[in-house]
Amino acid sequence: MPEPLPVLSAPPTADPPGVLAACDGSDGSLWALERAMSEAQLFGLPLYVLAVVNPSPAGYPPGMVELVHESVERMTVGMADGLRRSVATVQAARARPYTGGLSLHVVLGNVIEVLLSCTPGQHTLVVGTRGNGGFSRLLLGSVSTAAVHHAACPVLVVPAPPAPPAY
Known about the structure:
The protein is an alpha/beta fold. Helices cover 37% and strands 17% of the residues. Strands 1-4-3-2-5-6 form a six-stranded parallel beta sheet, with helices on both faces. The protein is globular and about 55 Å long.
């Protein structure tokens, strides 16, 4: 059995510039990851796959940081495992496997802030239309909307594939 892909806890840099794919394990992020692999392969660029864990959207009250440390570690390990499975799933479904440079990153922080901080110098940021957050009625999720408006590189927003016709 092949060695699992290492997952870095540092955000990807743009050295060298590459295709940055945001992946949270949702269907939308898997479709975006597949497109990001195609883009990276087409342009001969490395692929940086980023997942962000936001352990406390509202912050911790005083004294709670120590109590939640173990939970944050478990969330990070779980996200790393999910990221590996996401890449393997997309690779297995591709007609032509991605063979370029690939690095996986799981970073703690605010999803939008971390993602946008990784965009300077990148060739392209690839995101799905919606991730694991709620509000499925929205055309674009909060992350894809923020990326389109604030990323420091071109952004490719990948929509869901069309539904098969109902017969």
